[in-house]
Amino acid sequence: MPLLDTFGRLHDNLRISVTDRCNIRCFYCMPEHDVRFVPRAEILHFEEVERFVRIAVQLGVKKLRITGGEPLVRKDLPVLVRKLSGIEGIQDIALTTNGVLLADQAQALYDAGLQRINVHLDTLDRERFKQITRRDDFDRVMAGIEACLRIGYKTIKINAVAVKDLVEPDIVPLARFGREHGIEIRYIEFMPLDAQGLWLRDKVLLADRMLEMLSTEICPLEPIPDPDPRAPATEYRFTDGIGTVGFIASVSKPFCLNCNRIRLTADGKLRYCLFAVDETDVKTALRDGSTDEEIIQIIRETVRQKWIGHEINTAKFVPPPRPMYAIGG
Ligand code: SAM
Ligand code: SF4
């Protein structure tokens, strides 16, 4: 039986966080100082992740995304990618990274079976990069993107977080860069998942506003009929035929009704939603000799609890206790 929730949504997409640690400090995700990370002993081993994925595949999971924290700070990540890409039933494996360590690892990850990569980059301006990430690693991220282009990854995308009154000057240059290199830019509306509680509704640069900026300053865009209606991004192509962009409009146009995702945190908690306030412990079951069947029941029960959608746009919204870096974006 596939993994259905009580609203009939089919779950075939698993996001796996491999660490909550990170080598930069984006202000909309992490605090600047004194970040408290999960002790290493609490982090799932690769063998535990692999077993969980093998079990999830029996429930119909086909697509994986590895994330974090910063996944490339986890030692030997290509070893995990190789294990996961070898699992029968996994059709697609992708990675989300801040790109700082990518130049050194892109080839090993590709050789291990990684086909798709999303590099997080909000700006092409070195000073703004420093302001956002509180680190001076812009050149390293660019080197990482160049390495992926050289190697020939099937898909390279850039994730750009859209914060109002900050990144407006970056929206158009990023799209131009994407058009030049065959990279889709995905603009992600700033979500209330930052560690310091800085999020405010009027700090969100809305997808419609960005669409307008791109149409006016580059050329008109038209929606791309969606081959996968359950993907979170709404995609557009430039009508001059050069390039595409995507918008993840979690705030202005929530896409919960099509959600097909579950998330495994680095410390072995299963979450049915990015914004869930509760989660299920699977690490204990992975470590106490529980059978695959028992773990299947845990997964099914977690998905059964899934709510119809997040409440960002209502007064009832409560931000999750874990910020983005500790969930896995
Ligand atoms: N460290 C990697 C990275 O930055 O890509 C992977 C983990 S990060 C949590 C995953 C994605 O979350 C990032 O690409 C970034 O675009 C997004 N993100 C982080 N904080 C966010 C926020 N408050 N609102 C919207 N997107 C956010
Ligand atoms: Fe690190 Fe990614 Fe969070 Fe930025 S968004 S602080 S790169 S985990």
Q: Per DSSP, what share of the residues sits in E-state strands of 2 or more residues? A: 15-25%
How many E strands?
12
Element string (H = helix, E = strand): EHEHEHEHHEHEHEEEEEEHHH
Biggest sheet record: 12 strands, mixed
Assign the CATH superfamily: Aldolase class I
Tally of structural domains: 1
Number of helix segments? 10
Gross morphology is globular
Ligands (ions, cofactors included):
S-adenosylmethionine, iron/sulfur cluster
Distance between the termini: 28 Å
Mean pLDDT: 95
Q: Helicity, in percent?
A: 25-40%
Q: Tell me the CATH topology.
A: TIM Barrel
> In what order do the strands lie side by side in the largest sheet?
7-8-9-6-5-4-3-2-1-10-11-12
Secondary structural class: alpha/beta
| Low-confidence runs | none
CATH architectural type: Alpha-Beta Barrel
- Rounded to the nearest angstrom, the radius of gyration is 19 Å
Identify the CATH class. Alpha Beta
